[in-house]
């Protein structure tokens, strides 16, 4: 029945799209383009849902470096490093993993038609960039002439160019990135439309040329398919996705594109930064938009959370383990509760309600969520097989033994500590039992959620068309000309206020961010404590004694020597705690430093006051709709924190042993100071760069915002003037179009 409903739904939205075509003549063309793109995506994924007796699709999602590939290596490949992992993002394409009696792997390349679309979108990126640069140069020139500053350089700064690029649609940016990567070796395009088998015996080595930023075939890889003889996968397909915060735009976009195909997701959140804002945004915004209502939270890198224990003394592992889990549990409950309070209702975030209910259930039954360590698991397997540990595994285990009593390196002990088996046995048993219900509910919810989303878009189109019809019906040429003149007067009057408002926002924001950087830099000294232990040892020494006048001999004697030792792990913990404190300060500080909503409200108030002073006969919506279109382009650059592993490695390279002694303690302290200063400098540089980017963005808006609003209002008025040339015909056509739109919306009622 669901399949029939889904087929009917697809037919309805395709029919609606046909009825909306030509709507570019009545409303902003972006409304129609967005609707068409949404229809394409819904059709693609709905067709997958229509397949009967299909596998349940589980997506592994999370930010870059959340440990997704390491988690799957432990979960599916018994801890073997099959899926590549590295300090930089490696999963360039989605990796689909399913069951088969005979293991295998293949790469699926884009088809020629896929690549044609990518090239066309890449060209659209170039067109948008060229148009944006030309417009900005023209505005700068006009502004210089208006201020009689003929000496102003009309060239664009890198920040201005980057600002233009950031406003180009993400799919165009992603495609441009792919074509640029492919341009380095256009011979790879001969692989389009093909598949490439990969040797299972050398899978990790062979995957390197298909994944990562420097993989030869990375830009043309659509996805990678793997089949594994693992009972866990029977009836299930697991999709290992690129990170949602991946700096490679195309990979992050690809994750979002395929996410809708998943029935449920495992959200991997690193426990050192457990349940970050990005993770909550994924739950509240991204998943509901893809009609996903089932999610499992997995706290990854649990070994790091344990080692972040602040105590300087050796403590029982059992105590620290329980205390760390309790803190993480409390953090999860607190963050989820805050997200729930922020949501007006669950209607747009049913998955949040599910996550909250599941969190409470797990805490009630098991007293913890799933906190896992892929490192403990892989070390356990290697020790059991008598294989050598890698450098990171050996270092983590050494630190654990040094820090905690009751810690040992027995294979079974580590396996239990890893917590992978608990997740596998409990969660997959539950998923398998509920598989059919999840798939059936997914189909039903998909239709309902997408119906509401499509209806919302249609409602926006209808509202815009009705507004334009009202203006066409109630306005004549003379009145319209007066509106144009008064709007121009209002815009001239408000220019200075707009510039001042944006400039003040830019100054305040930059000042606040610089203060954040200074505070973080000053607090480096709070993270320098190294516990120094004193010990005694007996050494045998020798002295020469004379006998029989002419002879001497070396006589041994024992002395007690006092020595001092320090653990390298203390320094690593100091670095980690400093970075964690800095990240917390930045996250909290930026909320106050950058309030884009407040900036927009202040700008709107300036605009409305200017039109009121000009005594302009405008409906408020006549002004705010064009203003909102311009304000929607005012975005703030994202901020990325520093990479902790890079700084840890600086310590390990000079001090590979777990402990140092005597004079080496001073060297270790000096190295710690240098690395802390390096971290502080890097964070300060990143924050200053962020502040400069924001200042440039707001400065650009201060100069060109009024012109953009003027253009938007004039475009709107010009469109109405065109309608008035055949007023009766325009009114008739608008009414017919609005009737079509209303009919389209009614078709979705009750779906």
Notable traits:
3-stranded antiparallel sheet; 9-stranded mixed sheet; 14 strands; alpha/beta
Total E-strand runs: 14
Main β sheet profile: 9 strands, mixed
* Mean model confidence by pLDDT: 80
What's the overall geometry?
globular
Quaternary class: single chain
Structural class determined from secondary elements: alpha/beta
How large is the count of helical segments? 23
Strand percent estimate: 5-15%
Helix content: 55-70%
- First-last Cα distance: 13 Å
Topology of this structure?
Layout (H helix, E strand, L loop, with lengths): L1 H19 L8 H22 L5 E6 L6 H9 L17 E6 L4 E6 L2 H35 L11 H10 L2 H13 L12 E3 L5 H5 L13 E8 L7 E5 L8 H11 L4 E7 L6 H13 L5 E6 L1 H6 L7 E2 H26 L7 H17 L3 E2 L2 H11 L6 H13 E2 L5 H8 L1 H55 L2 H46 L9 E16 L3 E17 H26 L2 H18 L6 H12 L12 H11 L4 E3 L1 H63 L1 H21 L4
Parallel strand pairs: 1-6, 1-7, 2-5, 7-8, 8-10, 9-11
Antiparallel strand pairs: 2-6, 3-4, 3-5, 12-13, 13-14
Structure in a nutshell:
The protein is of the alpha/beta class.
